[in-house]
Specification:
single chain; mainly beta; Lipocalin; globular
């Protein structure tokens, strides 16, 4: 009696399992990084659990195939060069003084479904933070 029960339980456990998908780094994304992305969400913590907020009309990031970028977040300094090395994206702004005070600025980057998610590495958010971008159609 114990064998059929164990067999049945094993089948249920196998059917309940599903494969989790690891984040895809840039090189594995068929659409690539080139193009314009719009921020649609930000996540942060103020000492407790992560807070995620949807953003409408968020800033735009445009990546060109020649290593140049444009970012609409900062008024005075919005252009520069970028380097993508594995899952690390580094921006070097054209101006010396930017609002965030750091230049160059490095992010951990990965794709999740149809989104690009970035988390700062240069200045670390104590409780963690990230921004999610959706690629706009050309």
């Amino acid at each position: 009696m114990k064998t059929p029960y164990s067999f049945f339980l094993s089948i249920i456990m196998l059917l309940a399992c599903h494969e989790t998908q690891d984040p895809i780094i840039y090189d594995a994304n068929p659409d690539g990084l080139i193009g314009t992305w719009q921020q649609v969400e930000r996540s942060y913590s103020i000492g407790g659990p992560q807070i995620s907020e949807n953003i409408s009309d968020g800033p735009l990031m445009t990546f060109e195939d020649n290593g140049l970028f444009t970012l609409t977040k900062f008024n005075e300094c919005s252009t520069g060069t970028y380097i993508l090395d594995g899952d690390e994206l580094t921006f070097t702004f054209d101006c010396k003084d930017i609002e965030e005070g750091v230049n160059p600025f490095t992010f951990s980057v990965y794709f999740l479904d149809d989104y690009l998610k970035v988390s700062p590495k240069t200045t670390v958010c104590i409780e963690g933070c990230s921004a999610k971008f959706k690629k706009l159609k050309d």
